[in-house]
Amino acid sequence: MQTLQERAEQATREALQRLSELISACRESESRLGLLQRYRDEYRAKLEAATRKGVSALELANFRNFLAKLDEAIAQQRADVAHRQAAVMRGRADWQEAEPRARPYEVLLERRAEAAPTHARAPEQKKTVKYLSL
Question: What integer is the mean pLDDT of 68-89?
Fold first, then answer.
């Protein structure tokens, strides 16, 4: 019985560890997305400042190409964030599913521990009952 409880508790710990790793990876991905978005905003501001001063057609094309690549990177990063958020949800569900599995074993072991003193006293009680009935 104790081995089953230990296995259930181990599964819960592993699910919680996995969830922690998934949350960390998701936060990193969200951080990268924020960084890319800030960089794109800064680069757009540079483009606007450059167009006010006047830029050549080649420079303007380079700015626009780079912004398009940044937008692609942002779209890919958004997809990565969505994927990682879904993984966190699955990991949370796995942990919530694993956690209650250990509880029934705990209850059974507690009941067994409570009943153990009663069983240990049974021979003494029989002797006492026998003695009193004489």
Answer: 98
Q: Which residues, at least 6 apart from 18, have a Cβ–Cβ distance to it below 8 Å?
A: 91, 94, 95
Cα separation, 60 vs 48, whole angstroms: 10
71-80, long-range: CB within 8 Å, 24+ apart, which pairs? 71/40, 73/36, 74/33, 74/36, 74/37, 74/40, 77/29, 77/32, 77/33, 77/36, 78/33, 80/29, 80/32, 80/33
Query: Domain coordinates of the chain in residue numbers?
Result: 2-133
26 or 113, higher pLDDT = 26
- CATH topology classification for 2-133: Helix Hairpins (1.10.287)
Residue 28 has pLDDT above 80, yes or no: yes
How many other C-beta atoms lie within 10 A of the C-beta of residue 44?
13
